[in-house]
Structures are given as C-alpha cells and as structure tokens.
Fold this protein.
Amino acid sequence: MKQKYSYRTRQGVQINNPNKVNQDSLVIKTNLADKNINIYAVADGHGAFGHFVSQFIVKNLSKLY
C-alpha cells in the first residue's frame, strides 16, 4: 500500500522576539522491518532550548528504527 502524507510547521509568536526559532521537529519512518509499520512523530519544543530538545528527541527516535 502506498501512502501519502504531508506536514506543515509554523514558528510560535513572541512580540518581543520577531526572530523566534521554530522549535518543531518531526520524523517520518515508513515500512519498518518490511512490515508496513510506520512512525509519524512531532516534537513540539518549548522554552529557551525547546528547539534543541525537539531535535534531540527526533534524532534519537530515528536511531531506534
């Protein structure tokens, strides 16, 4: 079965910081172990280091499969 998917992300708004970094990260893994098992995950970062945390989660989740 062929799947189609899309994603969209948008940085948060901070009035005092118009250059705020988008802290969302995502991972899409399809057909794991040739068993049509899929992972779709979004890590939504928050706080001063939220983008680092969300990237860490996605990077390490990707290593598991």
About this structure: The chain has a mean pLDDT of 85. The two ends are 20 Å apart (CA to CA). Residues 24-64 form one domain. The CA atoms of residues 25 and 63 lie 15 Å apart.
